[in-house]
Amino acid sequence: MERWSLTPPLALLCSIFSGGRLLPVVEAAAKPRQAALTGTWQNELGSTMVLGAPDAAGAFRGTYKTAVAASKKPIQESPLFGTQHLADHLEQPTFGFAVNWTFSDSTAVFVGQHFVDAKGKETLETTWLLREQAESRGEDWKATRVGRNIFTRVE
Ligand code: BTN
What we know:
It is a single chain. About 10% of the residues lie in helices and about 40% in strands. By secondary structure, the protein is mainly beta. An 8-stranded antiparallel beta barrel has the order 1-2-3-4-5-6-7-8. Biotin (BTN) binds near residues 70, 128, 130 and 147. Biotin (BTN) binds near residues 68, 70 and 104.
């Protein structure tokens, strides 16, 4: 994946003044880094999610298709709403998002961090809370599950 790109006139200038070799530092100043989380991801359960590009404040939207469910209802792709750190120097940002399941009364929240290893492999290491609707306050104690998911990039 190409992380940097230049507008054509700037690329030409760089090329002239650097003997045909584009200077990474000039490239870095030319265009912001691609958002680290944007794209399609799959976790170890087989669930997939598509994360859209963040806005200037770091807010993003996406969709989540879970491969498993606590609910007995047929699984449907569901919307998610998230927020991430954006600062250019932050290559491995933290983030969080909530999934509003359209096929059950539950809500899930995920928090995590994007990591890139020495070989360029990307993972999203997450911890989640899944809250189901309790019938009464007496059932509240058993209505929240916690777990971890690791996502790898599909696209
Ligand atoms: C429900 O069962 O009410 C909604 C689906 C919950 C799916 C959970 S969220 C945490 C875990 N990670 C997944 O990819 N799927 C399950």
